[in-house]
Amino acid sequence: MSDDGPSPFSLGLNEDVQAVQEWVHEFARDVIRPAGQEWDEREETPWPILQEAAKIGLYSLDFFAGQWMEPSGLGIPVAFEELFWGDGGIGLSLVGSGLAAVSVAATGLPEQIGEWIPQMFGTEDDIKLGAFCASEPDAGSDVGSIRTRAAYDEAKDEWVINGTKTWATNGGIANVHVIVASVDPELGTRGQANFIVPPGTPGLSQGQKFKKHGIRASHTAEVILDNVRVPGSCLVGGKEKLDERLARVREGKRAAGQAALRTFEASRPTVGAMAVGIARAAYEYARDYAREREQFGKKIGDFQAIAFKLADMKTQIDASRLLVWRAAWMGRNGKEFSSAEGSMAKLHAGETAVRVTEDAIQILGGNGYTREYPVERWHRDSKIFTIFEGTSEIQRLVIGRTITGLPVR
Ligand SMILES: Cc1cc2nc3c(=O)[nH]c(=O)nc-3n(C[C@H](O)[C@H](O)[C@H](O)COP(=O)(O)OP(=O)(O)OC[C@H]3O[C@@H](n4cnc5c(N)ncnc54)[C@H](O)[C@@H]3O)c2cc1C
């Protein structure tokens, strides 16, 4: 191979992504990390932090859209790793609107994207949130059994939505809610559609707000939909496309299930990146502690038991990040997820974060178990990554089905 030819492979971040990494890291270090404990205790959305992030353009549609479109695909995972390195709960408050935005961006009409996504972020002086509401009390992993119904009122060109959503990040406090509802329950997931509920729409209210184990600075609540009427234009993707899709499914033809699967595979690495951020925070903290803390006249890092733990932590984190970057690059560059690489990234990173944060507690001993030190909070925060956006079991199902081609149950 000649020396002056193009490099056939590189894991180097381009200059733009490096600049974003440094910029977000600075904010995470100076603003997010110092506020983590307070907002965990308060169990409230950290509005002042969102405001500071909005002031510098970090909490903004421009930033999210810019990174989403970044050609290498690494803009979002790199930024999210830094935010969650700062703090998981605050991090989730900062990126929670993204899920709703992506659900509209993925299949919405250009005019829907233009009208509603900016309203999920607001402006520097008037911050807004978005919420994506799919889960229900009886439909978590089993999204096909969603009971929330959307019925079309042809005379008024309106959709009437009834049901109860649960576990919605920003549910009830968001400006714009995106609701997954069934238009034809017999068709399971293929009979579902996403609906935008504009701000102030009568009939939408917040139910119970959950008190959680971790990521407590992120608001999670039930959303009640009682005869919520939205204009026909709020059906994401439009009625024509929905009717076509339903007709195809009723005729027994395959619907565009592949497209939905692709969207999931492309978004899962971004969730993996959040888990990598928390894991890295805990690893660095434990490593520095092990260099200082002395027992039996030695630094505890001198004990092989501790150094090996740190070695495993670092190895697993780096492996997770590589899986995340690979899947993010594949998603952005139109590669086929032939082995469910997005699910792999989320699975590995989520489970790594739980293990690494637990190991960090172990390395800090009694201190690790107290709220005087952050690692117990990071451990609590990490656990969500084996549960939401598809549990670890569901990721394994998806990977298992993809690599075997069998309908693994
Ligand atoms: C803090 C938080 C924030 C969330 N934010 C949102 C949000 O913004 N929007 C939203 O729509 N949802 C959100 N969720 C919901 C989340 O996505 C669900 O909790 C998740 O999908 C799991 O569903 P479930 O809780 O009903 O568990 P279940 O589906 O009841 O699963 C229980 C257990 O059974 C296992 N299991 C289920 N089915 C199978 C199977 N086929 N094979 C093997 N094992 C299986 C699961 O892996 C799990 O271990 C959030 C949840 C939390 C806790």
What would you note in describing this structure?
The chain has 3 domains: about 15-125, Butyryl-Coa Dehydrogenase, subunit A, domain 1, CATH 1.10.540.10; about 130-250, Butyryl-CoA Dehydrogenase, subunit A, domain 2, CATH 2.40.110.10; about 255-405, Butyryl-CoA Dehydrogenase, subunit A, domain 3. It contains 12 helices and 11 strands. The strands form 4 sheets. A 4-stranded antiparallel sheet has the order 4-5-9-8, covered by helices on one side. It has helices at about 15-40, 45-55, 60-70, 75-85, 90-105, 110-115, 240-250, 255-290, 305-330, 340-365, 375-380, 390-405, and strands at about 120-125, 125, 130-135, 150-155, 160-170, 175-180, 190-195, 205-210, 220-230, 295, 300. α1 (about 15-40) runs parallel beside α4, α4 packs across α8 and α9 packs antiparallel against α10 (about 340-365). The mean pLDDT is about 95. It is α+β, with helices and mostly antiparallel strands. A hairpin with a 4-residue loop joins β4 and β5. The site of flavin-adenine dinucleotide (FAD) has 20 residues, from β3, β5 and α12. Flavin-adenine dinucleotide (FAD) binds near residues 99, 133, 169, 212 and 393.
Topology:
Blueprint: H1 15-42, H2 47-55, H3 61-68, H4 75-86, H5 88-107, H6 110-116, E1 122-123, E2 126-127, E3 130-133, E4 149-153, E5 158-169, E6 176-182, E7 192-197, E8 204-209, E9 220-231, H7 239-250, H8 257-292, E10 294-295, E11 298-299, H9 304-332, H10 341-364, H11 375-382, H12 392-404
Parallel strand pairs: 3-6
Antiparallel strand pairs: 1-2, 4-5, 5-9, 6-7, 8-9, 10-11
The protein binds flavin-adenine dinucleotide.
